[in-house]
């Protein structure tokens, strides 16, 4: 249909010129097919390319949906929720990735973003997630997991343009402190006592695939979490989402406002509100894929000093 319309438009334009310039009508009429035929061929080529791009996007989305599997909603005293917002239909599929795993070393999380777009980015995300799911269960050190992933990205994607920004978080069992490894990714937000604060890294390393810029190594640092805290991890499709005037989404402020009165509620409630707010900000769908991963540490239940006494009396 598009190629017919283009040919008709070209022919109509030539006819209109002939009417306006009647003295040159024979020449213009003769030129009409010369204009219409190339336009028809060009439009046909564009239509075929559009179909091919649409098919590539469908394939990439199918692979991505299989890759980004649902995260467990509860692991011990942790509750987790995730939301993934696909980009506008005109945009290419991105390489956002995330996962939450139960391992012998506690719960481990990753969120990241592969450079580039389309099938290549989705393929890179598949490589990273596959390796993370294996390494996180074998490597005692979270930093060692990151360094092994760096080697994989460097080998598979290669070059200065092939890299993955990532955050790796370890939440050990027992009283050991939580740990985070920053590799060029936006820092998480910590929600505590009604306030949202950015957890700025003390140790900031380059993205995975580029650790050689920092001597080929990285290290974790303590993550000060306590019962009742919520930790929000996200990709730059969230923090860089723009409204009609080009203003970025004010993530920290909006999370703080939306979280008021939701202490103790399931994390899915906050993420649903945040997703709606982000869609409102962007006018429907963001220009880039966006991922949100929320981890909530269950609060310690309050001590009931009379409960034990009541049980003893009943016995």
Total number of strands = 12
Q: Which CATH-level-2 architecture of the largest domain?
A: 4-Layer Sandwich
Strand arrangement across the biggest beta sheet: 1-2-12-11-7-8
- Give the helix level as a range of percent: 40-55%
CATH superfamily of the largest domain: PPM-type phosphatase domain
How is the CATH topology of the largest domain named?
Phosphatase 2c, domain 1
Count of individual domains = 2
Q: Roughly what is the average pLDDT, rounded to an integer? A: 80
Q: Note the overall shape.
A: globular
Low-confidence stretches: 1-32, 302-315
Computed Rg: 27 Å
**Could you spell the SSE succession in H and E letters?**
HHEEEEHHEEEEEEEHHHEH
Largest sheet: 6 strands, antiparallel
What would you call the structural class?
alpha+beta
Percent of residues in beta strands? 15-25%
Level-1 CATH class name of the largest domain: Alpha Beta
Report how far apart the termini are.
84 Å
Number of helices: 8
């Amino acid at each position: 249909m598009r190629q017919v319309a283009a040919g008709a438009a070209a022919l109509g334009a030539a006819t209109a010129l002939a009417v306006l310039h009647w003295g040159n009508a024979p020449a213009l009429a003769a030129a009409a097919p010369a204009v219409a035929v190339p336009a028809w061929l060009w439009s046909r080529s564009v239509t075929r390319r559009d179909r091919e791009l649409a098919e590539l996007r469908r394939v990439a989305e199918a692979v991505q949906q299989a890759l980004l599997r649902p995260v467990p909603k509860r692991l011990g005293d942790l509750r987790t929720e995730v939301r993934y917002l696909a980009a506008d239909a005109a945009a290419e599929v991105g390489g956002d990735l995330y996962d939450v795993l139960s391992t012998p070393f506690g719960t481990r999380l990753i969120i990241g973003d592969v450079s580039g777009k389309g099938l290549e980015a989705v393929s890179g995300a598949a490589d990273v997630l596959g390796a993370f799911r294996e390494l996180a269960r074998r490597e005692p050190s979270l930093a060692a997991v990151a360094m092994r992933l760096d080697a994989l990205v460097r080998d598979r994607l290669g070059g200065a343009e092939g890299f993955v920004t990532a955050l790796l978080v370890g939440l050990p069992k027992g009283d050991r402190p939580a740990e985070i490894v920053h590799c060029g990714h936006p820092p998480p937000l910590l929600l505590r006592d009604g306030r949202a604060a950015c957890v700025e890294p003390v140790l900031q390393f380059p993205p995975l695939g580029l650790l050689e810029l920092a001597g080929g190594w990285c290290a974790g640092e303590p993550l000060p979490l306590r019962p009742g805290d919520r930790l929000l991890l996200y990709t730059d499709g969230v923090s860089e989402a723009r409204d009609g005037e080009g203003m970025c989404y004010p993530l920290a402020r909006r999370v703080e406002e939306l979280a008021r009165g939701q202490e103790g509620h399931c994390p899915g409630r906050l993420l649903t509100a945040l997703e709606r707010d982000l869609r409102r900000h962007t006018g429907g769908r963001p220009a880039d894929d966006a991922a949100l991963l929320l981890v909530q540490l269950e609060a310690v239940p309050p001590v009931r000093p009379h409960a034990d006494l009541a049980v003893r009396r009943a016995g």
